[in-house]
C-alpha cells in the first residue's frame, strides 16, 4: 500500500501572528526579527520578499532593501500560543501527527482513502485550521515526506497541491536542486560546479557518482531527487541537548556583564533540566569575538542537574576560553549528554538543605515564571533576556527566532 503523507506549513507564521494582533499590518511589508542593527530577519512577509528580503538576512541589509517595511521584534510567547492552537486542531483530526517545527507539520493519512478521500480530507482540514485559527496554511500531499514538503513549497502562498503516486520524479524533474530538503548553499555551489542546477539532471546521475562527491549524504540526496524517502512520521521529538545564546547589541569586554550572562544561562538551563527530570553529563561554553572567530570548550562531568555543580564549571570554562581579551559579540552555554533522572544526593554535601532549597526555588519558578527568583549574581544587565522559553522537554520542537539580543 502506498503511503499518504500530508505536509502542512503555516505561511509566514510569525508575520501572520502579528497580523492577527494588528490588522493594520495586512497587505503591508512586515519583517519580524531583531530590531537593532545586529538583528537578523526571522520572518518576512511576501510583500517584503519582493524587495529581496529573506529570513536569516541581517536587519541592517533588510532596512536598506525595504526601508518602508514594519519592523517588529519577535514574541515567542505569542507564537507558541498560536502554534499550540493549530497543533490541537490537527491532533484532533489526524491519526498520526509529527510537529516538525513551530509552523510545520506532517500527518500520516495512510488507509484513510478507504473511507474518505485523503485529498478531500486534507482540504477540509486546511479550511478548518484557517477558520478556527485565522492563520493561512498550505499543504502538499504525496507518498512521502520529501515530495510532500516540496509540493507545499510549490503551492505557497495559502494553497494546496497533490502529487499522485508514480508521478514523483516527473513533478520534481524541472525544479531547482535547492528545492530538495538538506541541500544548502554549500551543497548547491558544489552542484553548480558540476554543471547541475535542476533535479532532473540529478535523477540521471549514477548514485555512485553522488556518493563519491557528497559522501553518505550523496545517496540520500539522490534518493530524494528521485522521489524516494522512507522516513517515518515521528510523533515525539526527544531533546538531546538544551542551550542558550545571546548576541550583544554592542561588542563588549565588560567582564561583569559577560559573567552575569553566563551565570544566568547556567542557572536557567539547570532549572529546565530539573523541570524535565533530566541530568546532563556534558557542558559546552561558546564565545564569538567581534571578528566572528568562534571558540568553544567542552567538559565531561558526572550526571547532575544541580546549580552548585554546574555554575562553577561553566564559569571556569568561560575563564579558560576568554583568553584573547578582545571584544565579544556572542556567548552561549549548552548542556548535552542528557538522560532521565533526578538530582542525586551526594553523601559529602549538605544534602537535605540543598535539595530542599532547589525544590522551593523551582516551585516558585513553576508558579510565577522562571525569572521570579534568581541568584543575586544573575540580576545584572546581562541577564534581562534569559529564560521564559517554556518547557524544552514537552516533545515539541523549540521556537526558533533569530538571535536574541541584549
Distance between the amino and carboxyl termini:
53 Å
Structural class: alpha+beta
Number of DSSP helices?
14
Strand residues, percent: 15-25%
* Major sheet characteristics: 5 strands, mixed
Low-confidence stretches: 402-406
**Secondary structure tally: strands:** 13
Work out the radius of gyration: 24 Å
What would the principal axes of the Cα set say about the shape?
A: globular
Side by side, the strands of the main sheet go 5-6-1-7-8
What letter string, H or E per element, gives the SSE order?
Answer: EHEEHHEHEEHEHEHHHHHEHEEHEEH
Mean pLDDT equals 86
Q: Give the proportion of residues in helices.
A: 25-40%
Written account of the structure:
- The protein is α+β, with helices and mostly antiparallel strands and 406 residues long.
- The protein has helices at residues 13-21, 46-49, 59-65, 76-93, 118-133, 145-155, 168-172, 185-193, 199-204, 207-214, 216-225, 255-275, 307-321, 351-368, and strands at 5-10, 30-33, 41-44, 70-72, 96-101, 104-108, 137-142, 160-162, 241-252, 278-289, 294-304, 328-336, 339-340.
- The protein has a five-stranded mixed sheet with strand order 5-6-1-7-8.
- The longest helix has 21 residues, at 255-275.
- The chain is globular, with a radius of gyration of 24 Å.
- The N and C termini lie far apart (53 Å).
Amino acid at each position: 500500500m502506498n503511503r499518504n503523507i500530508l505536509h502542512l506549513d503555516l505561511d509566514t507564521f510569525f508575520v501572520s501572528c502579528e497580523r492577527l494582533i494588528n490588522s493594520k499590518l495586512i497587505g503591508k511589508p512586515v519583517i519580524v526579527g531583531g530590531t537593532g542593527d545586529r538583528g537578523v530577519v526571522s520572518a518576512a512577509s511576501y510583500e517584503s520578499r519582493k524587495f529581496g528580503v529573506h529570513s536569516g538576512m541581517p536587519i541592517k541589509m533588510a532596512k536598506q532593501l525595504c526601508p518602508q517595511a514594519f519592523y517588529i521584534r519577535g514574541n515567542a510567547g505569542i507564537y507558541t500560543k498560536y502554534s499550540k492552537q493549530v497543533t490541537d486542531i490537527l491532533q484532533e483530526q489526524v491519526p498520526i501527527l509529527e510537529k516538525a517545527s513551530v509552523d510545520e507539520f506532517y500527518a500520516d493519512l495512510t488507509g484513510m482513502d478507504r473511507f474518505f478521500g485523503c485529498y478531500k480530507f486534507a482540504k477540509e482540514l486546511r479550511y478548518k485550521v484557517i477558520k478556527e485559527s485565522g492563520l493561512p496554511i498550505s499543504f502538499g500531499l504525496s507518498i512521502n515526506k520529501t515530495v510532500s514538503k516540496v509540493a507545499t513549497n510549490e503551492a505557497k502562498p495559502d494553497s494546496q497541491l497533490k502529487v499522485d503516486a508514480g508521478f514523483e520524479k516527473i513533478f520534481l524533474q524541472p525544479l531547482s536542486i535547492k528545492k530538495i530538503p538538506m541541500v544548502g548553499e554549500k551543497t548547491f555551489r558544489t552542484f553548480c560546479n558540476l554543471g547541475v542546477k535542476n533535479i532532473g539532471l540529478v535523477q540521471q546521475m549514477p548514485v555512485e557518482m553522488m556518493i563519491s562527491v557528497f559522501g553518505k549524504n550523496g545517496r540520500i540526496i539522490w534518493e530524494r531527487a528521485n522521489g524516494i524517502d522512507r522516513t517515518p512520521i515521528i510523533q515525539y521529538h526527544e531533546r538531546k541537548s538544551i542551550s542558550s545564546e545571546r548576541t550583544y547589541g554592542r561588542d563588549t569586554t565588560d567582564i561583569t556583564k559577560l559573567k552575569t550572562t553566563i551565570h544566568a544561562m547556567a542557572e536557567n538551563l539547570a532549572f529546565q533540566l530539573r523541570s524535565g527530570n533530566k541530568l546532563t553529563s556534558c557542558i559546552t561554553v561558546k564565545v564569538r569575538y567581534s571578528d566572528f572567530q568562534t571558540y568553544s570548550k567542552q567538559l565531561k562531568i558526572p550526571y547532575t542537574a544541580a546549580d552548585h555543580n554546574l555554575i562553577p564549571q561553566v564559569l571556569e570554562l568561560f575563564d579558560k576560553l576568554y583568553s584573547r581579551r578582545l571584544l565579544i559579540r556572542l556567548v552561549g552555554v549548552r548542556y548535552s549528554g542528557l538522560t532521565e533522572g533526578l538530582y542525586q544526593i551526594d553523601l559529602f554535601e549538605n544534602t537535605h538543605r540543598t535539595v530542599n532549597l532547589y525544590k522551593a526555588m523551582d516551585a516558585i519558578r513553576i508558579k510565577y515564571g522562571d525569572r521570579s527568583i534568581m541568584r543575586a549574581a544573575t540580576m545584572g544587565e546581562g541577564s534581562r533576556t534569559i529564560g521564559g522559553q517554556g518547557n524544552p522537554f514537552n516533545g515539541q520542537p523549540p521556537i526558533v527566532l533569530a538571535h536574541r539580543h541584549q
